[in-house]
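Input record (one chain):
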Amino acid sequence: MSYAGPLLIYLSAAESVGTSKEGFSSWVFAISVAAGLSSIGLSLWFRVPVAMAWSAPGTVLLISLGTSLSPAEMVGAYVAVAAILVLIGFSGVFERLVQLLPPSVTNGMMAGILFGFGLKAAGGLATDPAAIALLIVVFAVCAMLFPRYSMLVLLASALLISAVFYDASVGTVGVVFASLEVSGPVFSMGAMLSLALPLLITTLSGQYLPGMAILRANGFRISANPILIVGGLVSVLAALLGGITTALASITAAFCAGSDSHEDPDRRYVAGIACGVFFCLGGVFAGTIVEVLVLLPTALIALLAGLALLQPILKFTGAMLASEDAQAGLLTFLFTASGVTLFGIGSAFWGVVIGIAVHFLGRSAELFSGKTHT
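The corresponding structure, as predicted from the sequence alone:
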């Protein structure tokens, strides 16, 4: 759940920015090992099921930006976000910082980022209707019978469809280890505003905030500060290999922290360790994973990635519309999903700016109106 779906989105991001197969292998190694080692270390340290991963909304940001940023600028944005996460962890202002942003705006931004990409999921219906329709049927059946394993079944089905419809040579894939490509960071204002700022917001409010809430709801009283520090430090190292920011998992955290992982809460930390081990294995064999994924046609990749985003889109859109300030959230959503670029800065930044402006103008109008009537 925490690996297959987001990895398909990551593949779409790699294709959108023109990354080579070797470069993508380096990305997969970086994010897998960073998430794996931090999951193992934090779970052992605190005896709490801490599952780390990478942000799907953050990955979709790369797709929306396309080739507007160079690989070095992307690395610079990752390093900047990682450094800020470490500073937030040491300062202890995580909860207060997240509360500064209106929930309607953060939910609208994340829903807009995901929705803009989700629209592309059905693009292959015109060119490959049979394959797309078949995969949608498989998805519908999986959603009813075994939703927890739906992405793994969908990926296996997509490979089978690729072999039948597109003559993909699935059987020729062998064991291939990761190819590592080190890239130095370049810090530019465009990358900071278009990628780093939205990525920081999605990481804090879309990953760390719900992840911590899930841990605490299951009785695990742990501070977010050391998790932020460790996540930020491993993110710096991952960034130099092209990997996007490592963060606390949310969906996987629910599996690891709940009774499904173990009846005894004191033994559930093993689930966090197991999650980390499997992530590390994915990193070691990143070359094989990439060799398999590149066999998938673009239309199937877009559909699989879009299906992986259905639940997050539903979650963030529902939260946005349910908020008291839904209008500001909806405007944030629309401008973010538009994909518009102004002064070289991406739509996620402008969506947040407009949403915050509308939010505070609305609050000011309410205060003024209240004073006028008294």
